[in-house]
Amino acid sequence: MPKTFQKVTKHIAKKRGAVEALHEFSRDARRLRRANAREDRVARVSANMSRARQTYVERIAYFHESVPENQAPMSEDEMKDIVVRYINRSVPEIEQLQSERRKGRPPSKREEALLQRTDVENREFKTGFWMPDFSDESVLKALASWNGDWSGLSTMKFIRITKDGAKQPSVFPPKGMS
């Protein structure tokens, strides 16, 4: 039985001649409502998934821009440095927002969001920051040829690196502390 709204309307229109001539409680009207509800549910779930993935895509996009194409494999210290640069990328904007704010005024929503994001990323760095393994040359090549979408990340090898320098392998997509 067809599931998508478009297929259901097409099928009913072929059978009846006009979708508008349906009775409110008929089987075909129920099929249309079910198909429409399913399309809404699928759209809502896919929007939530893409929103959840967006932070990781932006993270990889930052690394894609900041790591040169012909970069040699990095040491752990170099990887920690690039993570610190990533975490502190919004510090100039935070300082500007703080300097523009009058004394005694609460911080703006933008400033609060930037501070919160920086705090979350610092906590993640203490326990294990999820990132591509730049010590592997094949990952650097895959990052250079990455086209910016989620599915393109599946070919890369990922690690979790801590502030102490501990490095452990991770999985894609990131799940908990994998």
Description:
The chain has helices spanning 5-16, 27-66, 76-87, 91-100, 109-127, 137-144; strands at 129-132, 158-161, 167-170. It is built from 6 helices and 3 strands; from the N terminus they run αααααβαββ. It is elongated, with a radius of gyration of 24 Å. The longest helix has 40 residues, at 27-66. Helices cover 57% and strands 7% of the residues. It has a 3-stranded antiparallel sheet with strand order 1-2-3. It is mostly helical. The model has no long low-confidence stretch (mean pLDDT 88).
List keywords for this structure.
elongated; 3-stranded antiparallel beta sheet; Tma16; 7% strand; 178 residues; 3 strands; mainly alpha
> Strands of the largest sheet, in order across it?
1-2-3
In N-to-C order, the SSE pattern is HHHHHEHEE
Determine the structural class based on helices, strands and strand pairing: mainly alpha
Percent of residues in β-strands:
5-15%
N-to-C CA distance: 40 Å
Question: What proportion of the residues is helical, as a percent range?
Answer: 55-70%
Shape: elongated
Radius of gyration: 24 Å
- Average predicted local confidence, pLDDT: 88
Largest β-sheet summary: 3 strands, antiparallel
Q: Quick one: how many beta strands?
A: 3
